Amino acid sequence: MIQLPELPFSSKDLEPFISEKTLSFHYGKHHKTYVDKLNGLIEKTEYASTSLENIIRHSDGAIFNNAAQVWNHTFYWNCLAKPSNQKPSTELQKAITRDFGSIEEFTNTFSNSAIGLFGSGWCWLVISKDHKLSIVNTQNAQTPLTTDHTALLTCDVWEHAYYLDTQNSRPEYLKNFWAIVNWAFVSEQYQKHLEQYGNT
Length: 200
Ligand SMILES: [Fe+2]
Description:
By secondary structure, the chain is mainly α. Helix content is 51%, strand content 10%. The N and C termini lie far apart (39 Å). It is an enzyme of class 1 (oxidoreductase).
């Protein structure tokens, strides 16, 4: 049985950048529905008593889609926090500057990638085993979890993530996104990666 994780912030914490209304639909309806559908699909199957990550790595079709959407959304919520002018850790700032030129160039490239994604999906900052940072888009439920890359940051660019707040304007949503990125979480993922694969 897969559980819907608690949100790491309260329902008004992301305002005015993401409204309580968006959060109530996005978390309370969309994310919850992926969890409920997944539990219905895996009941009495080999996946019923395994981890979410394991399901994602070994399934396809509807089970994969719902499982990956559960994982992607949980990761997305962890990437967000109450606005507080957070910055990446010094180590992550150095890595971003090394691979993208500057923090500003990174955020611009990430935003352009997210805005340019056709249809529904996710934009990610990922890192390879040899510590190279890159920005990748995934369509629909696809996730870096099934690749050689480790996810550090994601932005959900399905319309349900922003339509109630910025209607059809994905660029406006991306602008808001940077005000609420939980850099402490992103930096922690970078640190964990270095610990797992060795320092540069
Ligand atoms: Fe979503």
